[in-house]
Design brief:
The protein is of the alpha/beta class. The protein has a single domain, classed as P-loop containing nucleotide triphosphate hydrolases (Rossmann fold, 3-Layer(aba) Sandwich), CATH 3.40.50.300. 34% of the residues lie in helices and 27% in strands. The strands form two sheets. It has a six-stranded mixed sheet, with helices on both faces. Helix 3 packs across helix 5, helix 3 packs parallel to helix 6 and helix 5 packs across helix 6. The structure holds adenosine-5'-diphosphate and magnesium ion. The site of adenosine-5'-diphosphate has 10 residues, from helix 1. The site of magnesium ion has 3 residues, from helix 1.
């Protein structure tokens, strides 16, 4: 029997070969204790990201968006369900292993930039590497790390602000710096929780444009929470958290 030839050009969407799942949350449940009873927040959440996808999560305030991001990024553990990275379960590993995976795999960006006020931008961006390496190892590699930080700060448009402190920057610049810091350890997945929540619409769109550029140029996988439907719909896929479950809102054609 002759082998079937795979056509070079595939036109229908069904026949496009997708990359394998990179990160999945499977049947995640999470409840918080309130007084004497448990309040369920996530009631069976399933979501999968493939490498290079940009997915946005919308949902009302209190619907559990941040909770889900924290569980996926190993900042917290689910009551039920699993988090898988490249097909391997990661949520039930020993704490030290989870710390190592969190630092290596995930970059985090939050609504309030959480920059350290007494450090300048270069130092803020370098801070994850200072924390990760021993003093000796950091010192040996400091030139390489400084070059990397400069390159990333250039990528986010802040080359002219290397020695400025956060208090000398605009909100948009602070978020750019926070994004640069999240990228310095070369994460595989960026988790962004309302990254434009504290910015005016124009500045917020600049931050979204930057995230899209990083996604396009570096195939950085991005999972972004936003309450803004105009921002959400620019993603490859938009899902909504509603009553503790995920609904598909929109998938780009
Ligand atoms: P969202 O990000 O969608 O606004 P959150 O994930 O922050 O929602 O919160 C979902 C629900 O869980 C809210 O009712 C919130 O009060 C509750 N919650 C979140 N974190 C905790 C916590 N650490 N302890 C108790 N309740 C929490
Ligand atoms: Mg939130």
């Amino acid at each position: 029997m002759t082998a079937t030839l795979v056509p070079q050009m595939q036109t229908s969407r069904e026949s496009i070969v997708l990359p394998p799942p990179q990160l999945s949350a499977v049947a995640i449940e999470k409840a918080y204790r309130k007084g004497s009873h448990q309040v369920p927040v996530l009631r069976g959440v399933d979501i999968t990201l493939r490498k290079g996808e940009l997915v946005s999560i919308i949902g009302q305030s209190g619907s559990g968006k941040s909770t889900l991001l924290h569980l996926i990024g190993l900042l917290d553990t689910p009551d039920v369900g699993e988090v898988l990275l490249d097909g391997q379960r990661i949520d039930d590993l020993p704490a030290r292993t989870r710390d190592e995976i969190r630092n290596r795999v995930f970059g985090f960006v939050f609504q309030f930039y959480h920059l350290l006020p007494e450090l300048n931008l270069m130092e803020n961006v370098l801070s994850p590497l200072m924390i990760r390496h021993s003093v000796w190892s950091y010192w040996q590699r400091r030139r390489e790390f400084q070059d990397r930080a400069k390159e990333i700060l250039q990528k986010v448009g802040l080359s002219h602000r290397l020695t400025h402190r956060p208090s000398e920057l605009s909100g948009g610049e602070m978020q750019r710096a926070a994004i640069a810091r999240s990228l310095v350890a070369r994460p595989d997945v960026l988790l962004a929780d309302e990254p434009t929540g504290n910015l005016d619409a124009g500045t917020g769109q600049e931050i979204i444009d930057l995230l899209h550029k990083l996604n396009d140029q570096e195939q950085l996988t991005i999972l972004m929470v936003t309450h803004d439907p105009l921002i959400a719909e620019q993603a490859h896929r938009t899902v909504k958290l509603c009553e503790g479950r995920i609904q598909l809102v929109k998938e780009a054609a």
